[in-house]
Every structure is written in C-alpha cells, then in structure tokens.
Design a protein that fits this description.
With 299 residues, this protein is α+β, with helices and mostly antiparallel strands. The chain has nine helices and 15 strands. Helix 1 links the parallel strand 2 and strand 3. It binds N-oxalylglycine and manganese (II) ion (MN). The site of manganese (II) ion has 4 residues, from loops. The site of N-oxalylglycine (OGA) has 10 residues, from strand 5, strand 14 and strand 15.
Length: 299
C-alpha cells in the first residue's frame, strides 16, 4: 500500500501514514517521503516500533550519520550508542536525573530555539527524534518555519542579510542560560564556526533564514550589534504564525530539516516524569557558507 501524506499546514509539517519504518521501504515510498520532506520540512510518522538499528537505517536514507556530542558526558557513560543522541531526562542508570546534575543543566539548552549542530563545520541536514516515553502533560516540541519567516521579511532586510555570516558555538547557547562551567579542553574541542545567515535549499530553491541560539555574533559587525540583529531575527522567525507545536505520543518518529527550521523543547515536570527521546542525526553535505558560495577568512 502506498504511503499517505496528510499536510498539517500548507507547506509546513505533514503526517505520514501507512509507512512501517521498521522494514525496508519500496523505492517509490522512499521517493515520496523525500519529496514530502523537502516540501513540508517536518514529517511526523506515528505509531512506529523501531529498534535503534531500524531507527538508524531509516536515517541513513537521508545521508551519513553524525556521532553524538558526548563531551559533556565525559564523566558519565552513555545510555545509548554513539550514533544516537540521548535527549531523555534519564541518567546512565535509567533513573530520572538529579535537579542539579550537569546533564540537566546542559540539556536545558534544548529549551532555546535552535537548529541542530550549527556549531559544527558540517552541520546537521536533518534530525529524526523517536519518542519511547513521554510525560502526560508538557514536553511538546515546537518547530518554526524559517523559509516562511524569510519570505515575510521586508525587501530591505533581505538585502541587508545577503552574504552575512554568523558565528555559532555550543558555548554561546549555554552561556545564554548562564551555564559557563566548561573546561578549556571542552571549549577547544568545539571552536566557533561560521554559518551563513540566509541559505538556499537546493531541492526546491527556497530561501531560508539560518538561525540558532548557538549564533553569538555576526562577522564584520560590532558584537552587540550582531547579537541584537540575531535576537531580533529569532524573535521574528518564531512568531506564532511560523510555529507548529508537536504534542508527542509514544512511538512517534519526527524528522525535521535543520537547514530551514528551528525547534525547541517545552517544559514539563522533568524531575517527576520520564521523557525518553532518542535522536539520529544526518550530516549535511557541506557547511552553509560553502554551499552559499561565501568565502570566509580562516579564523
Ligand atoms: C533535539 C531537541 C527538543 C525536545 O532532539 O535536538 O532539541 O523537545 N529536542 O526534546
Ligand atoms: Mn535540537
């Protein structure tokens, strides 16, 4: 049976039915999923029963997998294999984390609007988040359509942004939360990287903002001015008209395009309820500056 696509908005977010991702998909179905993905940027696959291997196999349909950053877990063993990012509120003993744990402080960064791995030279093309346990209330994930946000900008702002480059670092987003407790070794392991502020999605030619709370300053601009522009653009891109909130059900798999969406996790009682979310992440083919043909002087 062919898969079914149910759009949630006109060109943003769709549900996909009659797709069993635990089994190899027919080439026509894979192609239909890919096409829908470029159009809607966020796809929801309900009721999936996946092992880690099946989750990763589906992710590989979109490109090579990223290895999860475990820098902040150097002191604790991982609950998941290295290709899976553990986005749960559980520690390595499978218990709800402690209120003051470093793990919790670090993961609170996911409550800020961001796109995955923009702090890497090779950022993420897409992320596939799988819900194994969800809290009864709260813990939604919100997605913002940065293509629509770009389209809605005044013409003079589009011109002002053309060719601009922002510096992204995981330590910028953590510093926004007042979390600066990183060793010099940790800092040096992930230096800031340049990313284009506007990018073009090759599959359909749509332009998109490329923003994240990881962005700290804009190259060639005074720090405060760049930061103010980034904050203003994030506020614009996350206006309710561009945002969809996903309320999780157990066994939902959601895939999003990190090149043209931002997302954030919403609050829940994380000291009481288990929220077990696991993410596979696919690398993009090149950094955004390279893809946009913007030359950046080496730092
Ligand atoms: C992620 C992420 C938010 C959430 O998995 O990349 O930011 O709601 N998740 O868990
Ligand atoms: Mn994320």
């Amino acid at each position: 049976m062919a898969i079914e696509i149910f759009p949630v908005r006109e060109n943003f977010v769709a549900e996909v039915g009659d797709a069993d991702l635990s089994r190899p998909l027919a080439p026509a179905d894979i192609e239909a999923i890919r096409q829908a993905f470029w159009t809607y940027a966020v796809l929801i696959f309900p009721d999936q029963n996946l092992t880690a291997e099946q989750h990763l196999d589906f992710a590989r349909q979109f490109g090579p997998l990223e290895t999860s950053i475990s820098v902040y877990r150097a002191d604790t063993p991982m609950r998941t294999r290295p290709e899976i990012s553990d986005v749960s509120n559980l520690d390595h003993r499978d218990q709800v984390w402690g209120r003051d744990s470093r793990l919790r402080m670090f993961q609170l960064g996911n409550r800020l609007w961001h796109t995955d791995s923009s702090f890497r030279h090779l950022p993420a093309l897409c992320s596939l988040l799988y819900a194994r346990a969800v809290p009864p209330i709260g813990g939604h994930t919100e997605f913002a359509d940065e293509r629509a946000a770009y389209d809605a900008l005044p013409e003079e702002m589009k011109q002002r942004l053309a060719g601009l480059v922002a510096e992204h670092s995981i330590f910028h987003s953590r510093a926004r939360l007042g979390f600066t407790d990183f060793s010099e070794e940790e800092r040096q392991s992930m230096p800031p990287v340049p990313q284009a502020l506007v990018r073009t999605i090759p599959q359909n030619g749509r332009k998109s903002l490329y923003l994240a709370s990881h962005a700290g300053r804009i190259l060639g601009m005074p720090d405060a001015e760049g930061r103010a522009l980034i904050d203003r653009l994030i506020a614009h891109a996350t206006e309710p008209r561009f945002v969809h909130a996903h309320r999780w059900r157990v066994n939902d798999l959601v895939i999003w395009d990190n090149r043209c969406t931002m997302h954030r996790g919403r609050e829940f009682d994380d000291l009481r309820y288990r929220r077990d979310m696991q993410r596979a992440t696919v690398s993009d083919i090149a950094g955004s500056c390279e893809q946009e043909g913007i030359a950046v002087a080496a730092a």
